[in-house]
Specification:
InterPro entries: Class_I_gatase-like. Keywords: Membrane, Signal, Transmembrane, Transmembrane helix. The protein is α+β, with helices and mostly antiparallel strands. It has 6 domains: 101 residues, Immunoglobulins (Immunoglobulin-like, Sandwich); 190 residues, Rossmann fold; 51 residues; 85 residues; 151 residues, no CATH class; 123 residues, Jelly Rolls. The chain has a 9-stranded mixed β-sheet with strand order 21-24-19-18-33-31-27-28-30. Strand 37 and strand 38 form a beta hairpin. The longest helix has 31 residues. About 9% of the residues have low confidence.
Length: 800
């Protein structure tokens, strides 16, 4: 007994001695290691993309070798663990690409040595839902745009970037706007390609450049709308004309710029100083001066100037700073599989009736006749199990080795060489196991998963060949990925449209690769219906731009005579027939008026159409000043697939393309509000922006709306008419309307008892640079009211 007691004591002593070094070493390492975690870019990220999480480990005294692991109750640590080695007195980092679903929950980063945790740090953060602006330059670059609502994670956040952030596609995809100031940055070719790809997929890039210092980077140079040929000194007072007149004190060095496939936005003494260029679905804006040059660094007109430039180039700050992620619209639609044929209700009803007869009176009568009614205890479950097995075997055999895919989303066609695809693709897997989804080169790919499935995917870090691998997939379950991808063979819709009186006339030809049905011509916030537009078809358009009362009948295109159907017309040049007065034989005509966009959506009883259209409107709202063709196709964009599987594809895409509108020379026209670009530039009382189809809501305070007329050098204004509702011709009595008089600097009250008409001479004092009108709407009550903007009609004639 005494011997046993001594053995136990010796064993305990050895156990303590054995554990003590490990515990002591771990404690010492915890003291010597400094762990920090950064999510997104300086703590900011968008919830609709994979988020880079950078883990930095500093070893104060000794060399360290171990692993870094993301720990979460829904995460398989094997998928989120990376090795790390840190020299004494140095720092090292590893980066994980995590789903926003993880970051929105409580998680921890754990550092291990030989499998033993030595230090850890909790993390939790929320996505930023506003405009995220990244800058590379001196401190304070574009800080005048920063206005964050930290409580609601909206607004505009301006954050400084490091060189490695620009090189990472995963960092760039979190940005809405990137600002690079030439004297303070250099790019590698890899970074230039990453920036180019980001711009093509919809990013907006601002470059301040006084020289051609990046001429050796072809991937970057091709983005720029200007090249420099020497330098001059200028005072840039021309910029103040685009603001309230804030003067610029002093001169700056300016590049002697010439545009290269770009558009001059502002020039100074005949030299372009700001130009822009459309690149894919994104845009590059370049200045010929240093964005932080002395007199410009603290110029009071910066915010107004860049707000106006960005909005006129399609980047609406007011909208984007409240733009919440609505990818779930597409996710819901993608998980409906029309090609996965199920039994009809009639077939199921007949089968159920047969089953009830079989196991009810049928089985009873059979056993009674055999005088074996006690067999019913075994026969009933045996029949049920047999029928269940037959159904399972039949279902498995009919769907064996097939992966049913459903791709839904929006295809925005920029030109004949480029389209941007925003898509969610879901697939039903037949056998379970491991499945790999691959996207086309240059895509952004993100798995869309529920929290309890975060552990079953891995994202490749090869950005040239983006892929997601789903692991441990259960039999006949659904997985989904979101894809933003370029499409370079989409073709385009060719439009030759012009105003004639108060009508929109011309031709539209489908030279895309998609057959379009349920086609709409969207004019601002109004729409008209066109007949289906298959590939190669040409359609004459003759639409009244006057609003009409909405009925279902008024939304239907007139019937088409099959005898006059025109064959495919690929390669046929479209010309204006007799100034749009004639009608080529066989081309369908359309002569409906306009109805509200949301009225058209209400007619789309198919919920799938409605959710995709709402997604598109939230991403890029239908707005005055644009003319879009919108149509639906069930042909896939083929931007992602499950390789080496027998796919059964399905698709539903909304195809969008902006169409230009011309003025016929010496033709008097009436331009409605729908074709006049407008935006709210400042406000003190907007409570709700009302996206995507409702009017903003104004509390106590005001909102200033800016309306852009045709350029004075190309259009002669004869008359301008303002009315306060397209249907009632009234305005809420609690709202006060004023026009800004640019000659006196005052706001002049408007009559609100109907329609106000101005002659060319009367409207002139209210037009800045001959074409910019500002309207202030003021609510002095405590009641929230919808912003009823005046309906403006401009009558005049294009100059020859």
């Amino acid at each position: 007994m005494k011997m046993i007691y001594m053995i136990v004591r010796l064993s305990l002593l050895l156990l303590v001695v054995g554990l003590w070094p490990t515990q002591s070493w771990a404690a010492n390492n915890e003291d010597s290691l400094i762990l920090s975690v950064e999510t997104g870019i300086n703590g900011l990220y968008k919830g609709e993309s994979l988020i880079p999480v950078k883990v930095t480990l500093t070893s104060r005294y000794d060399n360290f070798s171990g692993t870094v692991q993301v720990s979460h109750r829904y995460v398989d640590a094997a998928n989120y663990e990376k090795p790390i080695t840190v020299a004494a007195g140095k720092s090292a980092n590893v980066t994980f690409q995590l789903s926003a679903a993880i970051l929105n929950q409580d998680g921890r980063v754990i550092v291990k040595s030989n499998g033993t945790p030595v230090t850890e740090q909790p993390f939790k953060s929320n996505p930023f839902n506003g405009v995220l602006v990244g800058t590379v330059g001196e401190k304070g670059l574009f800080s005048f745009l920063d206005r964050q609502d930290a409580a609601n994670q909206i607004g505009i956040a301006v954050t400084s970037l490091q060189a490695e952030d620009v090189a990472s596609p995963d960092s760039l995809r979190n940005l809405d706007l990137l600002v690079l100031n030439d004297p303070n940055f250099t790019l590698s070719e890899e970074q230039a390609k990453a920036v180019s790809n980001w711009v093509e997929l919809g990013g907006t890039l601002i470059v301040g450049s006084v020289s051609n210092s990046l001429k050796d980077l072809p991937s970057f140079v091709r983005l720029l709308p200007m090249q420099m040929d020497g330098q001059i000194t200028a005072n840039l007072q021309s910029l103040s004309r685009y603001t309230d007149g804030s003067p610029i004190d002093g001169s700056v060095t300016v590049g002697k710029a010439v545009t290269v496939n770009g558009n001059k936005l502002i020039e100074d003494n005949g030299i372009p100083i700001i130009a822009d260029k459309k690149v894919g679905s994104g845009r590059v804006i370049q200045t010929a001066f240093d964005l932080q040059a002395g007199p410009l660094a603290n110029w009071s007109g910066n915010q107004e100037l860049w707000g106006r430039i960005l909005s006129l180039q399609g980047f609406d700050m007011q909208y984007r700073e409240h733009n919440f992620n609505n990818i779930w619209n597409l996710l819901n639609v993608s998980q409906y599989f029309p090609q996965l044929q199920l039994f009809s209700v009639k077939t199921i009803s007949i089968a159920m009736l047969f089953y009830m007869v079989l196991i009810g009176p049928g089985l009873y009568l059979f056993l009674r006749r055999k005088d074996k009614r006690e067999w019913g205890w075994g026969a009933l479950p045996a029949i049920s199990l047999t029928l269940t097995a037959v159904i399972l075997v039949y279902g498995f055999a009919s769907h064996k080795s097939k992966v049913y895919t459903q791709a839904v989303g929006v295809i925005n066609i920029t030109d004949s060489n480029y389209a941007k695809v925003e898509s969610v693709q879901s697939f039903v897997v037949p056998n379970g196991g491991v499945y790999r989804v691959e996207a086309v080169t240059g895509s952004y790919l993100q798995p869309q998963v529920q929290l309890n499935r975060l552990a079953d995917f891995r994202v490749t870090e090869d950005h040239l060949h983006p892929a997601v691998e789903f692991q441990d997939v259960e039999y006949m379950t659904t997985r989904s990925v979101a894809v933003t991808a370029p499409l370079r063979d989409a073709g385009s819709i060719e439009g030759r449209l012009a105003l004639k009186g108060d009508r929109l006339v011309g031709m539209i030809s489908n030279k895309s690769r998609f057959n379009l049905k349920d086609v709409r011509l969207v004019v601002g916030m109004k729409t008209a219906v066109l007949p289906d537009l298959p590939i190669g078809k040409t359609q004459e358009v003759n639409i009244s731009l006057q609003p009409q009362s909405f009925t279902e009948q008024s939304f239907r295109p007139e019937p088409v005579n099959p005898a006059r159907a025109v064959p495919a017309m690929q390669g046929v040049a479209i010309s204006y027939p007799d100034k749009f007065g004639g009608n080529p034989a066989g081309i369908q005509k359309l002569s409906e008026g306009l109805v509200p966009v949301d009225a058209g959506l209400n007619l789309l009883k198919n919920q799938r159409y409605s959710q995709i259209a709402q997604y598109a409107a939230m991403r890029e709202p239908f707005a005055p000043g644009t003319l879009k063709l919108a149509g639906w196709t069930e042909e896939s964009a083929n931007v992602a697939s499950v390789p080496n599987q027998a796919n059964e594809p399905g698709a539903l895409f909304l195809v969008l393309q902006d169409l230009p509108v011309d003025f016929l020379p010496n033709e008097k026209v009436s331009i409605p509000s729908e074709l006049l670009p407008s935006r709210i530039v400042t406000h003190t009382g907007i409570r709700d922006w009302g996206f995507p189809y409702r009017s903003p809501v104004l509390g106590r305070g005001d909102a200033v709306s800016e309306v852009v007329f045709p350029a004075a050098n190309s259009f002669r204004i004869d008359r301008v008419q303002l009315q306060y509702s397209p249907f009632t011709k009234e305005t809420p009595k609690s709202l006060q309307y004023q026009l800004r008089n640019w000659q006196t600097g005052r706001w002049d009250d408007l009559k609100t008892d109907g329609t106000t008409t101005f002659s060319a001479a009367e409207i002139a004092p209210y037009l800045k640079n001959g074409n910019l009108l500002q309207v202030r709407i003021n609510n002095q009550t405590t009641t929230d009211l919808p912003v009823v903007e005046p309906v403006i009609t401009v009558e005049g004639e294009a100059k020859s």
